[in-house]
Write a structure and sequence with these properties.
Structural class: alpha/beta
Strand content: 5-15%
Largest sheet: 3 strands, mixed
CATH architecture: Alpha-Beta Complex
CATH superfamily: UDP-galactose 4-epimerase, domain 1
Number of helices: 5
CATH class: Alpha Beta
Radius of gyration: 17 Å
Number of strands: 5
Order of helices and strands: EEHEHEHEHH
Mean pLDDT: 92
Low-confidence stretches: none
Length: about 120
């Protein structure tokens, strides 16, 4: 938003689930209305799994900036999370009739638009 490049302190190979906030809210409402008491549900969609570097590229493109890789030295690496994969399955939630309404690029574009308009 400030025109600064996105600096990644890794190669960006981490693979995570991301969910647009409106989808997270609708997923939670679906669980509250249709879910089974005591069961756990992931508010996730398999199409929402993305590598960090790809997510950063989408954001940078929409924001008109670049992604810069500033790989950490050994001391910095010691303080970073070792998690590389955290892609959640939303199958159980999908079986309740829920599906996401926004793709990752759509969610990012909407978020940046809202942030720009609120300035």
């Amino acid at each position: 938003m400030n025109g600064k490049d996105i600096v990644l302190k890794s190669e960006g190979n981490q693979f995570y689930s991301y969910t647009y906030v409106a989808d997270a809210v609708s997923g939670l409402l679906t669980v509250m209305l249709k879910g089974k008491d005591g069961d756990a549900y992931n508010v996730a969609d398999t199409s929402s799994c993305i590598h960090l570097k790809d997510l950063a590229e989408i954001i940078a493109e929409d924001a008109g900036t670049h992604v810069v890789f500033d790989l950490p030295n050994a001391t910095e690496q010691a303080g970073f999370s070792k998690a590389t994969v955290a892609c959640q399955s939303g199958l159980k939630l999908n079986q309740l009739g829920w599906s996401s309404g926004y793709t990752i690029p759509e969610g990012i574009a909407r978020t940046l638009t809202i942030l720009k308009e609120s300035r």
